[in-house]
Design brief:
8 helices, binds adenosine-5'-diphosphate, globular, binds magnesium ion
C-alpha cells in the first residue's frame, strides 16, 4: 500500500497535515498509520533523542549516520513489512530531509549522501512525497515561542541552505509542492486529490 511523505522545514505543517491525513484515511476505512523520522522504533527513538539533544555536538558525518541508523531500522522493521501487510503509511520526514539538512545544510557531498541513503532504505520509494511550501515570514510566525531542538537552533544561514535544498529537490521533481498557506483544512483539501489518486 502507499507510502506518503511530508517534507519541509520546521514549522511548515508536516505534523499537522500528517495527523489530518491519517484521520481522513481511517475515516474512509483505510488502515493508516503515522510515523516520524527519526523514530518509529525503539532504536530510532533512542537515536532521535540523542540527535536532537542540544548537549551533543557530533561531526556532520556522525550526524548523517545517526539519521541513517534510525532510518535503516524503520525501513526494515516497520515500513517494508507494514506496506506489504496492506497499511497506508504517512511519514513525517524521510530521506529528502537528509539531503536538505546534512548535505546542503552541513555541506556533505550530496552524491555520497545519496549513496548512503540508498544503503539505508534498500530501494524503498515513497508513492507521494510532498513539500509544504510556506514563506519564511509564516514559518517564523508558526515557530514563535516553540522550544528549539539541536537542529532547529542552528543559525538562519543553515536554515536558508536547508530551504534551498528542498527547493532544488522540488525543481528536480523529487518532491511535489503543495501550497502550505491558509488554515490546516485548506492545505489538507489541496493535498487530498493527490492521495485520492493513489486509491484512497
Ligand atoms: N496551516 C496552518 N496555519 C497556521 N498554523 C499552522 C498551520 N499548520 C500548522 N500550524 C501551526 O504551526 C506550528 C507548526 O506546525 P507543525 O505541524 O508542528 O509543523 P512541522 O511539523 O512541519 O514543524 C504548530 O503550532 C501548528 O499548530
Ligand atoms: Mg513536526
Amino acid at each position: 500500500m502507499p507510502l506518503i511523505v511530508f517534507e519541509g522545514p520546521d514549522g511548515c505543517g508536516k505534523t499537522t497535515q500528517s495527523e489530518l491525513l491519517v484521520q481522513r484515511l481511517r475515516a474512509r476505512g483505510r488502515p493508516a498509520r503515522r510515523l516520524r523520522e527519526p523514530g518509529g522504533t525503539p532504536l530510532g527513538e533512542a537515536v532521535r533523542a540523542w540527535l536532537l539533544d542540544p548537549a551533543h555536538d557530533p561531526c556532520p558525518t556522525a550526524e548523517l549516520f545517526g539519521y541513517l541508523m534510525a532510518r535503516a531500522e524503520l525501513c526494515q522493521r516497520v515500513l517494508i513489512p507494514a506496506l506489504a501487510a496492506g497499511e497506508w503509511l504517512v511519514l513525517d520526514r524521510f530521506w529528502h530531509s537528509t539531503l536538505a539538512y546534512q548535505a546542503w545544510g552541513l555541506g556533505l557531498d550530496p552524491a555520497r549522501v545519496r549513496a548512503a541513503i540508498e544503503l539505508a532504505i534498500g530501494g524503498l520509494r515513497a508513492d507521494l512525497a510532498v513539500l509544504l511550501a510556506v514563506s519564511e515570514e509564516e514559518l517564523q510566525r508558526r515557530r514563535a515561542g516553540a522550544a528549539r531542538d539541536r537542529i532547529e537552533a542552528r543559525d538562519a544561514e543553515f536554515q536558508r541552505r536547508v530551504r534551498a535544498g528542498y527547493e532544488r529537490l522540488a525543481a528536480d521533481g523529487e518532491l511535489t509542492v503543495i501550497d502550505g498557506r491558509g488554515d490546516p483544512d485548506a492545505v489538507a483539501a489541496r493535498l487530498w486529490p493527490l492521495v485520492a489518486a493513489l486509491g484512497a
